[in-house]
TrEMBL record:
It is found in: Membrane. This is Sodium-dependent symporter family protein. Keywords: Membrane, Transmembrane, Transmembrane helix, Transport. It holds the Pfam family SNF. The keyword Transmembrane helix applies. InterPro entries: Na/ntran_symport, SNS_sf, YocR/YhdH-like.
Amino acid sequence: MSARGEFSSRIGFVLAAAGSAVGLGNIWGFPTKVAENGGAAFVLMYLVMAFLLAYPVLMAELIIGRAKRANMIDALGSLSSNSKIRVAGIFTGSIGLLTVVFILAFYSIVAGWMIAFFVDAASNMLGFSIPWLTEFSISRNATFMALFLFLTGFVVSGGVSNGIERWSVRLMPTLFTIIVILIVYVSFQDGAIEGWKAYLVPDFSRLLDAGLLIDAMGQAFFSMSLGVGTMLVYGSYIQANENLPKLGASVALVDIGVAVFAGMLIIPAMYVAANNGVQIFTETGALIQGDSLIFNVLPALFATIDVVGWVVATAFFALMVIAALTSSISMLEVPVAYLVDHQGVERKKASTILSVVVLVISSVIILNFDALFGLVISITTQYSQPLLGFVLCLFAGWVWNRNEILTELKQGQVGVEQGLFWRIWPWYIKFVCPIVIAFMFYRSLTA
């Protein structure tokens, strides 16, 4: 095993990488976008965007990461001997690192809310209530944000195999089990069938709607943790003999599957809530989405089903916390890998330092919530991530030597040059992905 550490098994990597991809972007963000964009039409276009755009960029990150065995800044800076391109690579990696730090900053706040609602549901299940847990306040937000960052830092400080992999192989099966149980339970409640119809029957007239397409692309990039180096860093820990295209496909399929499963849970649950007298539509007739969905509609639903409701609520928010944690450890690993690789900082010390840095940024956001929370989300996920994905395509398609890429892929798949992946991916990442991402980004600015 190298000094940097490696994933000890294929399933360990797939669950860790899928865990990075499977976060609040799937469990919260995906159903929210489904509700906002007319149900099944969005589901269909999300699947298209995930396979046509997100998977090729995911593969670019994994291949670069394993070949260079380095953090994002050093990896992109070493793709070319040209001094100007090297500086561009270092600059891009630095922007990616800053982006992921700010994503983790707002993410930790939201994840803290999930912990608070989990504790509230569990306490109510045991027969007592603590109203502070569900009241929006600086003290509540700061307390649980700090707790979540402590959990994240604790896992990352353990290293690749003993920290990230060890916890991922425990948390991910738990997540799958909870979500399947909840889907089965909700599906047998009155009103669920209407939710299934809204989720599965597309309105084809909305398929090419600009807003829907932009949201579908953004959701695909955000849910797969693309553009900010998480998959690149995880790729740097993959063993040399692994088949990268198959590993990448496994990660993408698990991520997409969980997003679709989350929709199977939350959209029918909204219609069950409506059947139980909970308001699920806005004044304009659109389904309620965002934080109102997670923290108002669904808790109101749980409250209508008596004692069993608190059990379901506890399971649901446990699901949300697990999903958040599996993603946050990959986010924190990006800057930690840089301090460990480039600066020679000991891993536990690096994890502590960066957890504190993120805590400070999160605290500033909490203290200026109305001004900063939405702004940070918009800058990082709507603008920075797609642009970073665009630049990664340029590096993988135009800067990095094609023979070096083929040599790297051959380590895990002899004869890969004869397969479908190599016949499509090089020109696809070179021409199609940059053009489509640039066009979609332009549409997002003018929509």
